[in-house]
Hints:
Helix content: 25-40%
Shape: elongated
Strand order of the largest sheet: 4-3-2-1-6-5
Largest sheet: 6 strands, mixed
Amino acid sequence: xxxxxxxxxxxxxxxxxxxxxxxxxxxxxxxxxxxxxxxxxxxxxxxxxxxxxxxxxxxxxxxxxxxxxxxxxxxxxxxxxxxxxxxxxxxxxxxxxxxxxxxxxxxxxxxxxxxxxxxxxxxxxxxxxxxxxxxxxxxxxxxxxxxxxxxx
Length: 152
């Protein structure tokens, strides 16, 4: 695959593949000042017959990606640049999948219960019980919502 022409999503010629390192293609481009960038293979479609690698990202995205310095790839920086999940840190957990108290995966009801605040469900139950004790079996209707604006 070395020497294959790299073409971007806008059909711009970018440069040539000069190497492969793990899950990354090393692409060199530029005329006077040659630079090398790593492109995740997941964004590349290889055409062996035409000796072309088509990438699904734009030239601007590749050119703004972290450059390869001293022959080594900063995998974390490249993954973050291309928005790959491997770049993100895992969420904090407490043991076997239990989330930490401020985890956004918790429902509002779980967070209210944990904070000692009455949940909306508890408030609705309390209102329903008070209504049953006072003899009101049904909730009063809202004439505005039903289209009937006068009380019968």
